[in-house]
């Protein structure tokens, strides 16, 4: 299955602690291979479609809210 890049807009990333909590929470979401998190949001690499409800629940546990989700069309090369 092709890898996907998913951009997640997040509300509530107000500190470095929140960024770290989101990064940790994303590691528990099935299908997420890597996550780059900043105070602007997150970019995920996934091995297929990610369940939005699981993503939202994981981030809610980290104290933030998903405000948008965009999946890049196409696939990433496997190196």
Give the gist of this structure.
With 79 residues, this protein is α+β, with helices and mostly antiparallel strands. The chain has helices at residues 16-26, 52-61; strands at 4-11, 32-38, 41-46, 65-71. The longest helix is centred in the first third of the chain and has 11 residues, at 16-26.
Description:
With 79 residues, the chain is α+β, with helices and mostly antiparallel strands. The chain contains 2 helices and 4 strands; from the N terminus they run E-H-E-E-H-E. The chain has helices spanning 16-26, 52-61; strands at 4-11, 32-38, 41-46, 65-71. Strands 2-3-1-4 form a 4-stranded antiparallel β-sheet. Strand 2 and strand 3 form a beta hairpin. The protein is globular. The mean pLDDT is 91.
Please render the helix and strand layout as text.
Layout: E1 4-11, H1 16-26, E2 32-38, E3 41-46, H2 52-61, E4 65-71
Helix pairs in contact: 1-2
Low confidence ranges: none
Oligomer: single chain
Please give the count of helices.
2
Please provide the ordered H/E string of secondary-structure elements.
EHEEHE
Helix coverage percent:
25-40%
- What spatial form do the alpha-carbon principal axes imply? globular
Task: Pick out its properties.
2 helices, alpha+beta
């Amino acid at each position: 299955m092709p890898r996907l890049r998913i951009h997640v807009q997040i509300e509530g990333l107000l500190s470095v602690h929140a960024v770290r909590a989101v990064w940790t929470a994303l590691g528990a979401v099935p299908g997420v291979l890597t996550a780059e998190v900043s105070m602007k949001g997150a970019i995920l690499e996934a091995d297929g479609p990610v369940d939005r409800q699981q993503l939202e629940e994981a981030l809610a546990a980290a104290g933030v809210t998903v405000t948008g989700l965009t999946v890049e069309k196409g696939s990433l090369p496997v190196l």
